[in-house]
Fold this protein.
Amino acid sequence: MSIAVIGAGKWGQAIKFALSFKNDVVITSRKERKIKDFVSLQTALDKKHLIIVISAQQINEWLEKNFRYKKDQKILVASKGIDTKSKKFLNEIFERYVPPQNLSFLTGPSFAAEVMKALPTAVVINSVSKNTAEEFASFFPKFIKTYISDDVIGAEICGAYKNIIAIASGICDGLELGNNARASLIARGLVEMQRFGKYFGAKEETFLGLSGAGDLFLTASSKLSRNYRVGFSLAKDKKLNDILHELGEVAEGVYTVNAVYAIAQKYSVYIPIATEVWHILQGKKPQKSLETLLEN
C-alpha cells in the first residue's frame, strides 16, 4: 500500500521504518528534513492512508489549516493526548473532519527507539470499524503483533493518562522512594485511569490490556520515557521550563494533565495522583504531594 506518515519526529520515523517492511511509505513534517522518502505536505495528503503523528496539542490547529478530507481516505492516529484548550479527546476532534468508520487509533507499548531496532512488541488498532482496523493492522511488519478493538474512547484515555502517571513515577524514583513505592503508584495509577475512563463509557478490559496496563508499565518505568524523565527531574528541583528545554521533545503528559484535571473537576471524578501531578507542575513541592497521597 502507499501510505503517508505526517510527523517526522522519532515516533513518526519509527512508524515509517516499521511500515516500510511491507509498504511504500513517505513521510512529511512542518519543517523539511533530510531523511529518506521525505515529501511535501500536499504530496502526503494525496495518499489514501495517512498516519498522523503530530503532537496532540497541535492537531486541532493543524487540521483546521491543512486538512481537507478526500473520499474514502483512511486515517490512523498515532498521537496520544487530550487537547488542553478544548478539553476534547482526539477522536472528537478528528470526527469533525473524517467519518468515524474511516478513523482508527494506535495504542500499546511501543518506544520509538526499540521499534527502530525491529524489536518485538504488540499494539492495538482501535476503530468503530472492524474493516478499517484490520486494514491498518495488515500494514504492520511481523515483529509488531497487532490486535484490534472497538473501544476508541478507552484507548484514547489510556494513551493520554499513562503519560501523567509516568510523570508521577519519575518523581517517585527521583525522590528515591524505592521499588515498593513505584509499584504501588503504578498500580493505583491504573485504577485511577480506569475510574476516569469508566465515566466516559470505556471498557474495563481495555485498561487491563496493551493499551492500558501494557503502555502504562512501559512508560512509567523507563528512562526512555520522556514523561518519566520530566518527573525524575522535577524531583531533583529542576524548573519545568529548563527540563522541557533540555528534553528537546514534547512530553505530552505535561499538557494532558491540565485537561484531565479540568475534566475531573467538572464531573467530580476522583483522580488523586493526576491531581498531585497537576499541583507539582504548578509549583508544589513533590515531597508535599507525597505526604498528601499517603494521608488521603
In short: The chain has two domains: 2-150, 153-295. The chain has a mean pLDDT of 96.
